[in-house]
């Protein structure tokens, strides 16, 4: 077996290295200060907060190259897909049960991933459309409608204006608190008469359908930041 020996470094060498580093740092700081002093106030480089940089990087990472129209067209292509007699069998439930997010939401809510195979799937449908179109970083993913809405709210993207491609959250008794949410879908358009046109999963008799809903049943809207 090879033997490794630590060699002592003379104190004078350490001192000289430390002195050299100090001189270098001082010179660098002086040069930067001099450069900034020569620049007009409006041209001096502004200090950038690490928090600001972190937010900028996060925003870049979540940008998507898909439009609201593309997402809605894809959602519409699923109209007619139906669950089986057990309330399962959809591609949306199967995808979610096998996704990384299922493990995360099981850790949060309890149960096991296989339980999603026959669970209510309106939010899984919205999440799946986001995944398939490449818009998931903006559409979000969850099986629980309340948690899905809270994700939008936590990202300052939850409001009361119906916009095409927005994720709409419903409460059938007209409640307006996020905790009242019972259902979710996509907004196709605001009809301007107190109703909105939507595409929703797990509606009617357990199908993907196009619906017209009164805005009185809307708790709020989540706004994905789609490509222009």
Automatic annotation (TrEMBL):
It comes from the Bacteria. The keyword Signal applies. InterPro entries: CHAP_dom (IPR007921). Residues 118-202 form the Peptidase C51 domain. Keywords: Signal. Pfam families: CHAP (PF05257). Residues 1-17 form the signal peptide. This is CHAP domain-containing protein. It comes from Nonomuraea longispora.
């Amino acid at each position: 077996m090879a033997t490794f020996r630590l060699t002592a470094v003379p104190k004078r060498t350490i001192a000289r290295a430390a002195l050299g580093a100090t001189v270098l740092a001082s010179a660098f700081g002086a040069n930067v200060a001099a450069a900034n002093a020569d620049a007009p106030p409006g041209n001096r480089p502004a200090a950038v907060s690490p928090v600001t940089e972190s937010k900028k990087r996060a925003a870049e990472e979540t940008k998507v190259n898909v439009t609201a129209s593309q997402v809605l067209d894809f959602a519409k292509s699923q109209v007619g897909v139906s669950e089986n007699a057990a309330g399962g069998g959809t591609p949306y439930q199967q995808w979610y049960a096998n996704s990384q997010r299922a493990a995360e939401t099981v850790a949060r809510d309890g149960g096991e991933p296989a339980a999603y195979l026959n669970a209510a799937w309106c939010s899984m449908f919205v999440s799946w459309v986001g995944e398939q179109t490449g818009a998931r970083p903006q559409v979000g993913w969850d099986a629980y409608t309340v948690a899905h809405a809270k994700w939008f709210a936590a990202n300052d993207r939850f409001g009361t204006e119906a916009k095409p491609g927005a994720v709409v959250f419903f409460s059938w008794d007209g409640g307006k608190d996020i905790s009242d949410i019972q259902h979710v879908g996509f907004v196709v358009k605001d009809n301007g008469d107190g109703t909105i046109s939507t595409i929703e999963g797990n509606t009617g008799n357990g199908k993907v359908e196009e619906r017209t809903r009164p805005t009185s049943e809307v708790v709020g809207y989540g706004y994905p930041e789609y490509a222009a």
